[in-house]
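Colleagues,

Please find the record for the two-part complex below.
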Amino acid sequence: MTGADTLLVERLPRPRRSLWRPKVPIAVVISLVFLAVAVLCVCAPFIAPHDPSFINPAESFRGPSAEHLLGTDQLGRDIVSRIIAGARTAVLAPLLLAAGTVLISTALAVLAGYAGGRVDGVIGRVNDVLYSIPSLTVAIVVVGVTGGGFALSICVLMIFALPANIRLLRAAVLERVHLPYIEAARTLGVSTPRILVTQLVPAISPLIVTSFFLQVTFAIVELSSLSFLGLGVPPGSPDWGRMLAENRSALSSNVWATAGPGLCLVALAVSANLIGDWLYTKYEQAGRSR
Amino acid sequence: MTVQLVEPDTPARPKLPPLVRMIVRRLLSASVVLLIVTVVVFAFIHAAPGGPEQAIAGREATPEQLEAIREANHLNDPLWQQYARYAVSLAHLDLGTSYTRNEPVATSIATAAGVTLPLLLATWVLSTILGAMLGLFTARRQGSRADRAVVGFTVVGASSPVFATGILVSYIFGVRLGWLPTLGVGDGGLDTVRHLALPVLTTTVVLLASTTRFARVRFGQVLDEDQVTFARARGLSSQYIVRTIVLKNSAVQMITLAGAVLVAMTGGLVVVEQVYGLPGIGTLLITGITMRDIPIVQGVTLVVAVLVVLINLVVDVLCFVVDPRLRKGLETEA
């Protein structure tokens, strides 16, 4: 019996690459580095070489030079400095949005999954309704007619991001609600809030972290879409999406005025996505081996 | 610990067929969705500072003129009366008349849909079918070089904002290579096809990333199932495996995906139309917002919401028809 098994195993093709594989994929390392740089820009806007809103019409749409590494925009403002200044809205807002979304959806998902019954039903129904609203269209209208407001766009997008996250997390909660250790805690007389916070939330925390990063990606894409349309951030502010809209007319004189913020946006979103994906795969594999 | 036996509930009245019951339930929730969308849009548009009278009368208007316009359009009535009037006209299938375009909202939307619908349909078909094909291709050779290249593309594609992709595409094919026009919609016929090529390409690239990723995961799951291993052991051809096992088992997910792609496009095309200067539904909405053209904004959001609700309904019905397990599930659930 065992002999036959080993024979079979030996006949299986060996894995092609036996080279050393790093524990953390290189792409994820690069992503982490980029995120760190972006956060650095948020914390230290003074590393910018110029004043991001200093207007110099004489230097309109100059190409890259030693003075202006990525050239200037129409009003002669330094692109590098504007990218660094724009990191504030580009990084902080998605982080805030994702944190809020994940926090609220965790609370609701744990509540729905643990309480079950009517609570679950109500949350589920509301979820279904929210889910079938064309979110970006409504967000554009709401943010557009009220004359923008960055906080408002974050709130609106957050509400529409809730259903998908609640569904995901609730499913994870349901898998665990009936596990013996939860029942044991209940039998011991541990209060419900305590069970939720100390037992259930830690159990699904890998998934929470994962959906946080994936949410950051969505937030970057959607928030920048709003600012590309001229909604959300006030005019003149150094926002990456807005810079793309403002500078694309001058692609022939200074490509970098558009390419710079565009590449930063994509790199930021890809970084968050890669980290989220990587965490998710790790989480899934851990679940499978258990 | 007690074993609880739940008595099967005896139906008091003859039950409708499950499909009909599902559709009725869906239509009920759809009406709630439409109510919420109209109320939210209505509330925000009326609570927002700056009414439409300025846009109608122009800058030089006197306060008396502005007041007359507000009065003529019933903008001074209590909000609930305005909403009631709006709801009554909707019940007559009347979307109202645009403030700034001097034509019925329905006409404006129909004209704009002439631009948006071809774009929508072409992108939808391309991104769904190509996504399924690429997904199948990669799911069958997971870990290979081709697979990793495609996965890399999907990560970058899915996390790039559509306007960034659009600017890149229009720069490469429109400006650098000069193959295709990058602005406007052309003058009909072949010219319009040429004008729509780049917007379709842009949206397809962005959506293809998501569809490929989704299809690859689902096909991969099915290929991992025991039935596939068993079919292989029986010596069935891979063609048979793909056609009868993989496609059938992922039909529900693929239909859901096709619906989700359409829904995502209702928002995404607004941005794409701005990038390529297309006079479609999205542009209509954006100009409506800047001009404070209340009927236009309300009309467009309502049409989009109805579209989304219909898509979701069709998706549900199709899944139900395709998958007998779902039908069974509904029968036992009710």
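The mean pLDDT of chain A is 80.

Comments are welcome before we finalize the supplementary table.
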